[in-house]
Specification:
With 432 residues, the protein is α+β, with helices and mostly antiparallel strands. It has 13 helices and 15 strands. It has two domains: 115 residues, UreE, C-terminal domain (Alpha-Beta Plaits, 2-Layer Sandwich); 299 residues, Rossmann fold (3-Layer(aba) Sandwich), CATH 3.40.50. The strands form two sheets. Strands 6, 7, 8, 9, 10, 11, 12, 13, 14 and 15 form a ten-stranded mixed β-sheet that branches. Strands 4-1-3-2-5 form a five-stranded antiparallel β-sheet, sandwiched between helices.
Length: 432
């Protein structure tokens, strides 16, 4: 009688053989895919969360190479199952490269005639956001994008800075803040609003507790501590009014530029004749707006004088040499060189008032506006970015925060995240 293998047994054998084959194929693929490429060109589904992947890897001591000028500033990471899984969970596009492919790519980028470079990042920078303790009626683009990208940060304010906490951080962002002590010059329109009154009282109480007679005096000392942080090698990033008010406070020094509704006594009528521009980071020869009822700090900002229509409001990023100017190259990595403009209390900077040693990285040349500028101070670096929210053209007090799920590939927000990773990838400019 002929022996027959039961059908069920044969089916089970085939299934096990198939599973074994699939397992072997997976092993082969993983042995070949020794690198993970996180593309940052138009093939990336979520550019903003991709920065979070790079930061996540750095937190786990996984080296990340930032491929400058290659496919929008892509990231190359040694194969790691955790990184691969995080990309899948966060919806970040990923490609696998064999060792030979990765080596060929890096060799090609290293050729002198190719305007590309690979910069190694090995440690995640520790991030602090300078932000008030009370809830203000506006959001902050940096905290929004850090949260969306799942990059951790600490909130600090005047007390922590004056207590010497800045030394614990590699990167500092100045939240929408007025360093002149004029509370954003919101007095005319919002003096009776609870949030405004809370901000004033909170800052006045803090100043008194820390031994200052005026909020403006406290802010000036805080600004000086930030300057010391820069001198010692810190990284500073600021947007909107935190940019020009910082320089105004530094230039004013002991000069009283606040009227009585802000600090209880009149401002110095000769304030503009006593400004010391040697103390500023970015701007020179500017004039402070003395009228407390005018919603403007100085002529640095062009919000009230610009004649740019919204449908024509764009600024262009400069191209830099990846090998000879790696720092600005890092800070301008993007999948688009043309960025939509956006308003703010400080929208853009009058190009005529920028110091000659400051590097302009993004501008609307026709309008005479600089939007994105950078400089060095001592051992440290700073970047100023005009405007309030890259995906909300005219963000008003009380408007809801931007939902970045609707803008996962925002070129304007990418500039912020370039600065976040910059301390991990710092590379000194080479000398010719």
């Amino acid at each position: 009688m002929e022996n027959r293998v039961p059908t069920l047994f044969r089916s089970d054998c085939r299934r096990k053989a198939f599973m074994l084959l699939a397992f072997l194929v997976l092993l082969v693929q993983q042995s070949l895919a020794v690198y993970l490429l996180v593309p940052m060109d138009d093939r990336q589904k979520n550019h903003l969360k991709a920065y979070g992947i790079a930061y996540w890897a750095l937190e786990r001591a996984i080296e990340v190479k930032w491929l400058l000028n290659y496919r929008g500033g892509s990231f190359l990471i040694p194969y790691d199952a955790g990184v691969e899984n995080e990309c899948l969970v966060r919806g970040v596009s990923l490609e696998q490269l064999a060792d030979a492919q990765a080596n060929a790519l890096l060799a090609d980028m290293a050729r002198p005639e190719v305007n590309q470079d690979a910069v190694s990042m090995q440690k995640a920078p520790k991030i602090a956001v300078y932000s008030p303790p009370n809830k203000q009626p506006w959001d902050d683009a940096v905290t929004l994008v850090l949260t969306y990208a799942e990059i951790r940060y600490d909130i600090i304010y005047d007390e922590e800075i004056l207590g010497g906490k800045l030394k614990d951080y590699d990167w500092l962002h100045l939240h929408h803040e007025d360093f002149t002590g004029q509370f954003g010059k919101f007095y005319r329109n919002y003096q009776n609003m609870p949030w405004y009154q809370e901000e004033v009282s909170t800052n006045q109480e803090l100043a008194q507790r820390l031994g200052f007679l005026k909020v403006s005096e406290m802010k000036r000392v805080v600004a000086s501590e930030v300057r010391n942080y820069l001198e010692l090698g810190g990284f500073l990033f600021a947007m909107c009014a935190a940019t020009d008010t910082y320089d105004i406070a530094m230039a004013a020094g002991q000069v009283d530029i606040c009227e009585s509704m802000y600090d209880g006594d009149p401002a110095d009528p000769d304030m503009n004749g006593k400004l010391d521009y040697e103390q500023t980071l970015a701007f020179t020869d500017f004039t402070v707006e003395p009228n407390p009822y005018v919603y403007e700090f100085s002529d640095i900002d062009v919000s009230t004088t610009r004649k740019v229509q919204q449908n024509q409001d764009f600024f262009t990023l400069f191209d830099f040499s990846a090998k000879w100017d790696p720092i600005p190259t890092m800070l301008t990595q993007n999948h688009s060189r043309i960025i939509k403009g956006f308003m703010g209390q400080t929208t853009a900077f009058d190009a005529r008032l920028i110091k000659p040693n400051v590097l302009v990285m993004g501008e609307n040349k026709a309008a005479g506006e600089a939007r994105y500028i950078h400089g060095e101070t001592g051992k440290g670096f700073w970047t100023f970015y005009g405007g309030h929210d890259p995906e909300d053209y005219r963000h008003l007090v009380g408007d809801p925060p931007t939902d970045l799920n609707l803008h996962p590939s925002s070129p304007g927000y990418r500039l912020i995240l370039n600065n976040v990773l910059f301390p991990a990838a710092k590379k000194k400019k080479q000398k010719t």
